[in-house]
Specification:
This is CRISPR-associated helicase Cas3. The protein contains 33 helices and 22 strands. The strands form four sheets. Strands 3-4-2-5-6-1-7-8 form an eight-stranded mixed β-sheet, sandwiched between helices. Strand 11, helix 24 and strand 12 form a beta-alpha-beta unit. The longest helix has 22 residues.
Amino acid sequence: MQLAQIERWPGKSPVEPGLPAHPAVYHMLDVAAVAEVLLADHPRRDLFCLLIALHDLGKIGRVFRDMLLNGTVQDRRHWEVTEAWLRDPEIEGLLADRLGGGFHALRPLVAATAGHHGRPPRAMDHDWRQMRDRAGAEARADATAFVRACLDLWPGATLEGMRQREAKTLTWFLAGVTTVADWVGSNAEWFAPRNAGPTLAEYLADARQRAPDALRAAGLLPPSPKADPLFDFRLRPMQKAARDIELPPGPMLAIIEDETGAGKSEAAFILAQRMLCAGKGQGLYVALPTMATADAMFRRARKVVGGLFQDVPSLTLAHGRAGLSVEFRDVRNTAPGSDDPVCGDWLAASRRRALLADVGVGTIDQALLAVLPTRFATLRNWGLSRKILIVDEAHELGEPYMAHELATLLRLHAMQGGSAILLTATLPLDLRARLSRAFAEGTGQPFAEDRDPAYPSLSIPAGASVRSFDPPEMTKGDVAVNRLPDADAALDLLARHAAAGAACVWVRNAVDDAIAAVAALRARGIDADLLHARFTLADRKRVEAGMMARFGRDGTGREGRVLVGTQVLESSLDLDFDVMVSDLAPIASLIQRAGRLWRHMDLRPANLRPVPGPVLHVVAPDPETVTDDRWLHGVLDRGAWVYPLADQWRTAAVLTETGAIRAPDNLRALIETVHGPDARPVPPALEGAELETIGEGHARSSHARQATIRIEEGYRDGGGGSDDAEYPTRLGQPTRTLLLLRREGGRLRFWSGDADPADAHATAEAEALSEVSASAKRLAGLDLPDQEGPELAGFRKDWPDWRKASVTLCVVGDDSAIFKGLAYDTDLGLLFGRSSHGDGP
């Protein structure tokens, strides 16, 4: 290209008045230079870099130039015009001729690079003609000239041997890496704007010199792995297996199945380190079921991940409330040059970018968004593709909607060359086979179903497995199961054991039942704590910190206290109790709950416990007496509606027969008896409820198939650009967010405390800490505060419309009342059916 052609088409506005407007072709070469580093080992590197160099070809045109220089409105976005140029018969013919192959392989790849702003292009032939005509004849000549020049800059680029099916599969990866390269290449600090002058070859040589430094500043140059032992303690059986199992060549899936408290997380880190050293990934993403469990894992991972690499890795926390984590703030504030993991501003600026760090810890939702037709799904996919994906508590994703999402994610991850590790205590064999099959389909390898029921198990489908383990040196032994006929019996038992100095817990299925239980315990003079999901984030963090300090591994002051909680106690939280009561729940949930019973035998051996043995006391009706489908409702209140009734009955029946949870000996049998394909038939009175559950499962599966991306169709036709909220990662009852306020000094303040209005970050944090979610259905029956009244309207006057539509302001009075039927108590959380502090529940 001639100098006049280069300077004719600006690609970026001047950073400041008087500074140069960066030429579009120079920007495109900046991005391609970044892509060269990111794709250094990719077999199609030159082809991809050539196409990425053309990603903003649509900026060559009168419409975009007028928008940039004069502020006129574009009727079509520049990335749509990029596809229009690359589908121009002359340009497309030029590319197909020089690259070999055919149009069928080229077109999906072109659409992938054009769609680098988070959504695929959707225009058609008549739109392309109009876009090209509006760009002008001069732009057509210059766009063609730039394509010719790029073909000369990457002479090794070729489509030879690529069929359309392979090209469509590659689009998910290509669109993601284009986005990342464009973000880095657009940073004016790393690629300073300059006037036209250098030839394209000269400019590309200079951009290639700057690209590694830019990626290093962004935190995107992964450090080399390190093979030194990660832990200095004596390894447990599963951890030894992770250290010794033979790794297959290529992408691999490993499934770690062992009881809670067996050290699965450490085993996963040991195995992941070996996989990193074997070239099966450049980093990790550890996916947890909830934000609370992600926060807990982040604290553990922070101490470990530095040992995985020869240099300091980047470490991020990925979920919607990551900015409120004290541990993550510490990492954010770690000074460059430290030996501790770091997270720079560029990576921390977005939850999406969090998946690009060397090590990410977050919710499974952040990973599942990679297979939903949402904006920047391909960015998430590319970030994950470079990593070993570790899914903790994989059994939590067993319901039909999330199971389909996870299977799709594993399939796509394997297609991109990624590897994965699943951790679970209670994975049914059918779900294990389904996830293994999905991964095998992604690799293109044949699948041989593994029905071996051995437990514990470390298995690599189509590879090695370990199913014979030495018994652990210290174990709590069998957990006896005792049925309690009603809540009153549970209260009596907890009162008796608390009086004897035991640390007790009651896991309830519903928040309202948990609140009622705490009130009843306190009425008996028992010190009882409460944890559930209906606290503001500020209060929940306070309660969680107190809970861990009291009932955690090194907890103190636990004697004679009772913690009442909901399912938030079930997964990945390192708690230890002497006595446990649980509402009846499916067997997988009860096994998880029982994992918090007599957990740390090294610190609290049997002779120091105030009870003779571990017992799981289950509040449940007699499974031998079923007269109607309200069998459970006479014993549990709202908690009777939480889980499928058939699973509940089967659990009660099998535990009545076995009388114990014998880990690990009978865990597999218990799980399969309730959740397996040959589960026993339910009593006739419950058959209708089971058929309804089966129908709901089919509906959820169908919903999931419609909601996930269509991998075979490629990014253009099988992806999308919707907002994340339009495609939820989980199905559940709709909720509404309440932002709680209080009156102090004659004005409204956030529930969590005051914030400097001039400090946007502090204000956003105070808002987030003051929010609580509740059932939209239950709130719909209440007379919510008028948001348009002068006081509340003034408080939210600067909010965007989407926030006004999704968040309701509520003022909590001195007596805890919000309005009739709703109150908020610091120690009890959000209370329905109460209008003041003194009202009953």
